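debug: dumping io for the single-chain case to check the tokenizer round-trip. Nothing else runs in this session.
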Amino acid sequence: MPDTSTRYTLPAIALHWLLALALIVSFCVGVYMSSLPISPQRLKLYNWHKWAGICILALSALRLLWRATHRPPEDVPMPAWQRRAAHATHVLLYVLFFAVPLAGWAYSSAAGFPVVLFGVLPLPDFVSPDKELAEAIKPLHGILAFTMAALVLAHVGAAIKHHFIDRDGLLNRMRPGRA
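debug: decoded output
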């Protein structure tokens, strides 16, 4: 059993890394598919990307629920500005965990392309079909996704800095495996 005074709980660690993997794969697929010409491959990737977005939305809700009902481990000592920056980054990441997939779902709905989860479960349109709205939402989805990617890179960079420069054990709190 991990020490919850210095480490996150096993479900928190699992949700963190599962969401991280889903975000990275979905972002990479999104960037790749948008450069493809119209083809069966592009349409397949768009569907996978939409399915990933809905799964990310569900994982984000589960992660937020877990975080709201379970205390995090004690803070690692650090300067106040770093603590504020970390807090702001985490809040923005949580907002974007929801905003990015919801903007994607809204874009898909407004463009008249319903989301059919795993090709089996049709989800309701998030907004009514509206081509002008779709054209307005499309760049927003991309801007939000690239903003989240930048924040993820900052988050990873800070974790690496804490591990290799500060050597304060911060990275070990979320590391899979035993302490």
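debug: round-trip ok. The chain has four helices and two strands.
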